[in-house]
C-alpha cells in the first residue's frame, strides 16, 4: 500500500519559495484586474494623486455623510473611468514611450476614451435637477451621452476584466433591440435605441442602479479597510496563528492553509489574491512533507475561495444583498456563518483523510511559531477588526463601521511606526503608509466598479424586457418534466424518498447551479451574482424558496467557479506556485470544494442552517447541521478513497449515495443514509486496527 506514497522532499529537491516580484507576476497572469500599465513619471504622479483623492473622498463620506445618490455614483464612476484608461492598456502593453500619437506615454485613443467616459458619467449628476423631465423623453444629447458611456464602459471592462462580461452585455442589448425576432416565449416587441439608452442611462434601473451604488457606498470602503489592515500586519498575524494552531497535526501545512485562508478571508474577498498570499508560504511546505504538487495547489485554491463567503467582508456580495433584500448587514453575516464553516470543514476533512492515506506528518515544534509570542507581538493589528465587528453589531451603517476601522488602522500604523523608528521617522512612515495604502485600495476597486456599472446594463435589459421571468418559466417547466419522470422510477421503492415537488426543486437547483458555474467561468463573482440574481432568483422564487436562501444559493455557486475547470483561476494561480499541472490542480480543487457544492442544496432544503430564515427552530437546525456534517464527511471519504483505511469501490459508492440521503429534507432518507454508512464504518475501523497491529 505504501509503494506509491509520495516521499517528503528534502532541501535539495526542486521546490522554492517565489520572490515578491514572481508572486506579483503570478497574480497579474491570472487576475486581469491587477495588470496595471507602467506610466511615465508625470502621468504616474497624476494617477497617484487622483487615486489618493478618490480614497480620501470615500473615507470622508463614510464618516461625515454621503451626497445625493446619483451625484455620489456619478462622481465615483467618472473618476473610475478616468483611472481605468490611465491604468489599463488596450492590448496588454505594460509601457508605451511618449510620442506624437501617445502624449505623455498614453495613446490618443486612451485620452479620448478617458475624457469622454468621465464626461458622460458626470453628465447625469449635472442635469439631475431636470432629470425627472428627461426620463421617458430624452433629448438627443442625452441619447448621445448615454451611447458614449455604454461604449466606454464596454471597453473599460474589456481592458480590466477581459471579454466575457462585455460580450454578455452586448447580447442583452441585442436582445432588447431585436426582441420581435426572438423565438417562443422569449419574444417581445423590441425597443428603440432611444428607449434603451433612456432606461439604461437616465433611470436608476440601469448603469446608475443598485450595483454601482453598492460599490460606491460600501464596497470601496471595505476594500480600503482590507488593504490598510494588511499593511499593519493583520494578514501575517492570521497566517502565524493558523500555523501555531494547526501545523502540528497530520498533514500540518495543508491544515494551516485551510485555517489561515479562513482567517484571511475575513478581511479579503479575492480568491486569487488569497491564494497567492497564503500559498507562497503553505504550498512549498505542503510539498516538502509529501503532498503531491497538484494537491498542494488545490488545497490552497479551495481554501482561498472561501474568503468570499467568510464574514464580515465577503467581497462585495454581502452589501449587495442588504440592498436587494432590504435586511440589515448583521442578518446577512449571521446567515453566512454556518455555510462558511461547512466549506472549510469539508476542505479540512479531505485534507485530513489525504494526510492519513499518504501517511504524512505534522510540523515539529521547531518549525512552528509560538501562539503566545505571535499574539503578544501582533495583538495591536487585531484592534481595527474588532472595532469593525463591534460597530456592525451595534447597528450602525456598514460605511460607518468602515470609517472607524480604517481610522483605527491609521492609528495602529502610526503607533507601529513610532515604536519602530521614533516620532519623526514614525510620522514619515505613517504618511507614506497611508499614501500607499489609499492608492492601492482605490486601484483595486477600479475593475469591480467598471464591472458593476456594466452589469447595470444587463439588469436594465432584464427589467425593460421581463426576460428574467420568462427564463424562470422555461427552467421550472423543464425541471417539472424531469421530476415527473424520475418520480415514476422511484415509485417502486417501499418508502417515498422524494416527491414530485421536491424533485422539481432539486432539478431546478441543479440547472441553476450549472448556469452559475458557467457564468462564473468568465466573469467575476460579484458580477456573476448580480446577473444571476436578476435571471435565476425568480426561478427559485416560483418554487417558494425564500429570497435570502435563493440569493445565497446563486452566490455560492458563482464562487465555486473559481475552482471549476476549465477556467479555475484560483487553482491555476496555486499551480503556478507549486509548479504543478494547472488542469489537474483545478480538478482536485473542485473535488476538495465538494462541501461548498453540497452545502447550498442543504440550506435550500433545510433553511434552518442559515439561522435567520422564517420558521427557524433549534431542533431543525441541529438536525440539519448533524446531517450536513455527516454527509460532508461521507462524501469526502468517498472522493478521497479513505475513511479509516482504503475503501473498496462499492464502499465509495455507498458513502456517496448515503451523503446525498443525509442532506435530504426527509427524515426517512436521513435514517437510511446513517444505516448505509454504519457497515462501512465498522469494517473500516476493523481494517484500521489490523493495519495498526
UniProtKB/TrEMBL annotation:
Matching Pfam families: DctM
Membrane topology, as annotated: Multi-pass membrane protein
Membrane-spanning parts: 38-60, 72-91, 135-154, 161-178, 207-229, 332-353, 374-395, 401-424, 445-469, 489-518, 530-557, 563-583, 595-612, 618-643, 655-678
NCBIfam families the record matches: TRAP_fused
Subcellular location: Cell inner membrane
GO molecular function, one term: transmembrane transporter activity
Task performed by this protein: Part of the tripartite ATP-independent periplasmic (TRAP) transport system.
Top-level taxon: Bacteria
Keywords: Cell inner membrane, Cell membrane, Membrane, Transmembrane, Transmembrane helix, Transport
This protein's name: C4-dicarboxylate ABC transporter permease
Cellular component GO terms, alphabetical: plasma membrane
Residues of the TRAP C4-dicarboxylate transport system permease DctM subunit domain: 149-613
Chief localisation class: membrane
